[in-house]
Every structure is written in structure tokens, then in C-alpha cells.
What does this fold into?
Amino acid sequence: DLEIQLGTSQDNLAKKEEHRIRATNETKELEQETVSVKKDIADVEVVIQKLEQEKTNRDHTIKSLNDQITSGDEVINKLNKEKKHISENSAKSSEDLQNASEKVEHLMKIKTKLEATLDELEGSAEREKRSRGALEK
It folds into this structure.
């Protein structure tokens, strides 16, 4: 009876030892998977960090470009105002030049008339001189 009990106990012991070995192997496999998953998580975290740094760099670049665009827009607006001012001045100058040209033309006509009148008066005075000279003789 004791021998049967001993045999049964040895069988139980062998089964339990087998179960312990299997459990130990499963634990080792799970630990290896855990290490692998932790390594994968660390790799993903590194990738995320790199992507965040890239995003920060791109955000900075975008901000710089937006600042340049804003600055360019300000320069364009300033130049457009200057262009408008120059255009207005040019139009006024053109108008002033036209007015001055009209005055010069008018004054030239008056000068021509005055010269013609002077020529007539000089001719008349010369004729009068000659006729006085002829009368005095």
C-alpha cells in the first residue's frame, strides 16, 4: 500500500515538476516578450521624440517664413503707397507742365503780335522820318 502511495506521490511529483518546468519556460518566454515589447516601446518613443523635434523645427521654419511673408507684404504695401504717391505727383507735374506749356504758347503768341506791332511801328516811324525829311528839304 505504501508502495502504491509512493508511486502515486512520485507520479504527482513528476507531473508537478513537469508543470513547474513548463510554467518556468512560459515565464521565460513572457519575460522575453516583455523585454521585446519594452524595446519596441522605447524605439517608438525615440521615433516620437524625433518626429516632435522635426515638427518643432518645421513649426519654426513656418513661423520664419510667415514672418518673411508679413515683412514682404509690408514692403509691398509701402512700395504701393510710394508708387501711388509718385503717380499722383507725376500726374500733377504733368498737369503743371501742360499749364506751363499753354502759358508759354500764349506768351509766344503775344510776343509774336508785339513783335509784329513793333515792326509796324518801326516801319511807320521810318516812313514818318522819311516823309519829314522829305518835307524839310
User: Anything to note?
Assistant: The radius of gyration is 57 Å. Helices lie at 2-136.
